[in-house]
Design brief:
The protein is an alpha/beta fold. Among the domains are: about 30-195; about 250-390, Transcription Regulator spoIIAA, CATH 3.30.750. It is about 35% helix and about 20% strand. The protein contains eleven helices and 15 strands. The strands form two sheets. It has an eight-stranded mixed sheet with strand order 8-9-10-11-12-13-14-15, sandwiched between helices. A seven-stranded mixed sheet has the order 1-2-3-4-5-6-7. Helix 4 runs antiparallel to helix 5 (about 185-205) and helix 5 (about 185-205) packs parallel to helix 11 (about 445-450). The longest helix is centred in the middle third of the chain and has 25 residues, at about 185-205.
Length: about 450
């Protein structure tokens, strides 16, 4: 990859002690370090005369860094040398929530009235570069959803090789601004292709010995068994009033464990899925049991929810819709949003975990989580090695921040800051963000996305 040369920066967003747009003795634009990325304007031999390269580092962006990046983009846009056009290249390690947030912020910023016409005239295209070992289909699916909400202002190419010729092929995906009218159809086509790719990947993974961990709890590894036993015994040491609710419910298709953790000061629900269909008779028993627990003393101060999906058979769409309707009842919805303090989703490591992460990233783009949501591959996996989706109430079009768990510095955008808004005291009135295209809010394809993986 063509990496920008980072300049010594005493503070994020400043190159060599000067502001964005500083030049060296030869008149060349000094590379800019904005904390989460390095930015450099490079002259090209073919195509547009210049390429503005953004090389992202691992770690979340900060408001100061994003503001510096947007200031630098504004400076470059006014340079006489790019009057004939330039290309914006964004080289990232992973297409996750951090990067989606930056992409959406640039889209909204470039669409502001004072610069929209000039940006469309001078910025010929975007090039988003992801690692060669990343799933091009998952990245394509994620960007397709994002662009259904905020269409790109110009052609956007998704590539795994920065030297690739920018024309649609098996390894180069092109998004066009005018494609929003057919976004739903393209999304469903992508979903079908991803399903087929996943089926083949699952078969290969299983053939190499990566089968699902379908052994029951009683046959699990000693460490895992000990952890499960500790969870099951927590309620026995509860100093608070003990309800008459049984701590364990067996329904064949699912095993539910509940209790109260004195150490964490909250109750817990653990749903362990098994390779069996959720029956008509089991559904009301399950929902009734969950209602009873949420109303019990153990959940009065809140509770955590764990979904162990490693052995779960895909339920029917009808069952999913009935569970969704049950959870969407106003009184229950308000109670769960208030008391459900944490959510954990456990899936098998490998390709299944990769797909689950892509699906949750896409899903939370439209439906931000109401509590901290962890994606794990083991029940007792340390939080610092998991993926965390943070709750927040962003401005429309700004996705939630997904970040590595505690121990990594935080840089999530404040909920009150609209995409593209400045936070340096010179903020301008918020501009209305792009509205969803027709059909973008339909729940059917979102349901299919969650259902498949």
């Amino acid at each position: 990859r063509a990496a920008a040369t980072p300049a010594p920066a005493p503070a994020p967003g400043r190159a060599a002690g000067e502001g964005p747009g500083a030049a060296d003795g030869a008149g060349r634009l000094v590379p800019l370090a904005v904390g989460f990325a390095d930015v450099e304007l490079v002259e090209l031999q073919h195509g547009p005369s210049h390429e503005l390269r953004v090389l992202a580092h691992a770690g979340p962006p900060t408001e100061m860094g994003i503001a510096a990046l947007l200031d630098h983009l504004g400076f470059v846009l006014e340079l006489p040398r790019v009057c004939t056009g330039f290309r914006l290249s964004y080289d990232i390690q992973e297409l996750g929530q951090w990067q989606l947030d930056v992409i959406m912020r640039i889209i909204c910023w470039s669409s502001e009235p004072e610069r929209q016409a000039k940006w469309q005239q001078r910025c010929h295209c975007w090039k988003i570069v992801i690692p060669s070992d990343a799933s091009l289909l998952i990245a394509q699916l994620t960007l397709r959803v994002a662009f259904m909400w905020s269409p790109p202002p110009c052609h956007v190419y998704l590539v795994t090789d920065p030297a690739s010729e920018l024309r649609p092929s098996d390894t180069v995906v092109c998004f066009q601004p005018e494609e929003s009218a057919t976004g739903d159809a393209q999304f469903m086509d992508l979903l079908g292709r991803l399903r087929a790719q996943a089926a083949g990947a699952f078969a290969d993974d299983d053939a190499r010995g990566g089968q699902r961990d379908e052994a029951p709890i009683s046959q699990a590894a000693p460490a895992k068994l000990k952890k499960e036993q500790e969870i099951a015994c927590v309620q026995a040491t509860d100093k608070r009033p003990v309800s008459e609710l049984s701590p364990v419910l067996h329904l064949g298709c699912v095993e539910v464990r509940t209790g109260y953790s004195a150490e964490r000061g909250m109750g817990f629900i653990v749903l362990i899925g098994h390779d069996a269909e959720l029956s008509e008779t089991a559904l009301p028993v399950l929902t009734g049991y969950l209602d009873d627990f949420v109303d019990s003393p153990s959940a009065a101060r809140g509770f955590s929810m764990t979904y162990d999906l490693r052995c779960l058979r895909s339920p029917s769409v009808d069952m999913i819709m009935r569970l969704a309707d049950w959870g969407a009842e106003p009184s229950r919805k308000d109670k769960w949003e208030r008391l459900n303090l944490e959510c954990r989703v456990v899936v098998n490591a490998g390709i299944r975990h990769t797909l689950a992460k892509g699906v949750l990233t896409t899903f939370f783009l439209f439906c931000p989580p109401v509590c901290r949501t962890f994606l794990l591959s083991e029940l007792d996996q340390p939080e610092e090695t998991s993926t965390v989706f943070e709750p927040k109430a962003p401005a429309v079009g700004a996705p939630p921040q997904a970040r590595p768990a505690p121990g990594v510095r935080e840089g999530a955008a404040p909920a009150a800051a609209a995409p593209g808004a400045r936070t340096d005291g010179n903020a301008k009135p918020d501009r209305a963000l792009p509205t969803p295209t027709a059909g973008a809010e339909d729940s059917e394809w979102m349901l299919l996305t969650a259902y498949d993986f």
